Amino acid sequence: MAPSLAMGVLLLLAAFSQHWIVSYFDSQITGEMKSRSAELADGLINGMNMLMVTGQISDPENRKLLLRKMADSKGVDEVRIIRAKQVQDQFGTGLPTEQAQDDLDRQAIETKTPVFSIKQLPDGKREFRTVIPFIVSKDFRGTNCLNCHHVEVGSVNGATSILLNMDEADAHIARVKHWVWAGDIIIVLMLALIVIWRKVDRRIQTLANYDAVTSLPNRNLLHDRLSQAINFARRYERMVAILFIDLDDFKVVNDSLGHNVGDQLLSELGKRLTGCVREADSVARLGGDEFVIVLTGITHRDGVVFIAEKMLESLSRPFILEGREVFISSSIGIAVFPKDGENEATLLKNADSAMYHAKERGKGNYQFYATEMNEMALERLSLINDLHRALERGEFTLHYQPQINLKSGKITGVEALIRWQHSQKGLIPPLKFIPIAEETRLILPIGQWILHTVCAQAVEWHKQGFDLTVSVNLSTIQVEEQRLVELVDNTLRETGMNPKYLELELTENILIERPDAIYKIFQQLRERGVRLAIDDFGTGYSSLSYLSKLPIDKLKIDRSFVRDIADDADDRSIVEAIISMSHSLRLKAIAEGVETQEQEEILRRLNCDEIQGYLFSKPLPRDELGAMLTANTCPA
């Protein structure tokens, strides 16, 4: 019930209760006034009878004295004696009489019953009038007198008209109304507070148990439902499946289209997931882009597979957000009770591990939990912990791989590559720790250290007379979250390096994800004299028209095209096209991953500007590269 409607009902009930209580007290007061009028009438009749018996009735002063005495009673405004017409005719003028003055007098005499009325006066007050007929009875004191005049028993001898003011009664009613209204207000306020509190309580429960963006159960309600599902499954020997879902590259949507669009995507995704399961199942949002599905009553693994594939298919369809199509994939990890865990915490942890395994398998797929995944998760957690302390422990080092000019055969530049020499685990390859560093955002301080160390080393080489460019790879995280231009400015100033010898490499995917932001950053770096290169070119889907507008200096051909250039005509054609396009855009082309003389000769014929690979040198520590620069030769 809406609060306004509830308040209306409460006010109506309050008004009705007041009307009922006031009516009850009014009827009680009317009854009391009737009784009082009857008592006054009896007293008056008795007084008149005494005057009649003693023969004093004919004296007007005696009659007036009696009436005045009655009128002086509390609350009495007027007392009149009315004689019936037949009695008046019999007595003639011997007795003082008053004619019936209105219908109320005549009604009382004619019907032989008391009548009363309550009249509203112009000043707002009320008056109570009673007319009580006098019926002749055998016990009447003046029987001897009446017999003399042949008055029949049972006839109406007359009536008594008594007019009472109701000031005291109305004051009492007013007090009753006041207290009733006060009580009603208190009751209404209490009931209103109850209605409001229940609404607030429901809102609190909603906020505590449901996600504000998707209206799905949140983590709190998920734990409650999962606990109930496990208890039910344990009692009836059933299975419960936990599907841990994480969106792939959801951050790209938030950064490129805004958080409002991101929230719309999460809301629509929640609806699609709900449409893939039964009413008995639960769909919850843990937070961010993570969702959990609880499938109950499962009897076979195939049922879980069917739901997982149904979800992947549903989420693969485009989302229409603010008039544009948005495609997004998801990775699903699955853990099943009781095989993969006996309680909710273990099941969620194992489903999470399976989800990360799905991401490592290429995203957009589902994986069931396996025991070895837990070992991998523990190893990954250990790696994350060690990574937090690696920088302060000085466990990172840099190796440099030479870049050779094909025409002169000279070393024209080097690419800086990070290595992690763990104190206990030995050398950890970059492919193993760089993705984790990006995921944990540790790439930001690590990247800052790399840039500063490389620039400081380049200054030393330049002082030794080596005229070469140093290349530093940048992560997408650095471009998105770090003040890159400010970082470069500070580093150049602190190390004293000439910006023309610094080359920053960014992958082609960054251009696709944030083209406008990248253009602005590139333009600012170019204005400072810093060189820019696109790494792994050919593996993405960047627009050539957009590429032509970027202030870049070099395209690095991905090693996947160079590897089979001697045997695969398609790869050779792609490499040739990239080199030709680079030259048409007045850019240099450098090929990565050159390992054979045949690859070198083909690249030379295709007019590639520079090459880099194990054919000439593996990445070398600083001192070994210094010796190579001094000799200006490359080992075979």
Q: What can you see in these coordinates?
A:
This protein is α/β, with parallel strands linked by helices. Helices cover 53% and strands 21% of the residues. The chain has 23 helices and 21 strands. The strands form 4 sheets. The chain has an 8-stranded mixed barrel with strand order 12-13-15-16-17-18-19-20, surrounded by 5 helices. The chain has a 5-stranded mixed beta sheet with strand order 6-7-5-10-11, with helices on both faces. A hairpin with a 3-residue loop joins strand 13 and strand 14. Helix 1 packs antiparallel against helix 2 and helix 14 runs parallel beside helix 16. The two termini are 86 Å apart. The relative contact order is 0.05.
Q: What is the compact description of this entry?
A:
The protein is α/β, with parallel strands linked by helices and 636 residues long. Helix content is 53%, strand content 21%.
Helix content: 40-55%
Biggest sheet strand order reads 12-13-15-16-17-18-19-20
* Coarse shape: rod-shaped
Q: What characterizes the major β-sheet?
A: 8 strands, mixed, barrel
What gap, in angstroms, lies between the N and C termini? 86 Å
C-alpha Rg (nearest Å): 52 Å
Class per helix and strand makeup:
alpha/beta
Mean pLDDT: 80
Fold topology:
Blueprint lengths: L2 H51 L6 H12 L4 E8 L1 H7 L11 H9 L3 E6 L5 E10 L7 H7 L6 E10 L1 H43 L9 H18 L2 E9 L2 H8 L1 H17 L6 E6 L2 E9 L2 H16 L2 E3 L2 E3 L3 E8 L6 H17 L5 E3 L2 H23 L2 E10 L5 E12 L3 E3 L1 H10 L3 H21 L5 E5 L2 H6 L2 H12 L6 E6 H6 L1 H13 L3 E7 L6 H4 L6 E4 L1 H4 L6 H16 L3 E5 L4 H9 L4 E3 L7 E2 H10 L5
Parallel strand pairs: 10-11, 13-15, 15-16, 16-17, 17-18, 18-19, 19-20
Antiparallel strand pairs: 1-4, 2-3, 3-4, 5-7, 5-10, 6-7, 8-9, 12-13, 12-20, 12-21, 13-14
Helix pairs in contact: 1-2, 1-6, 8-9, 11-12, 14-16
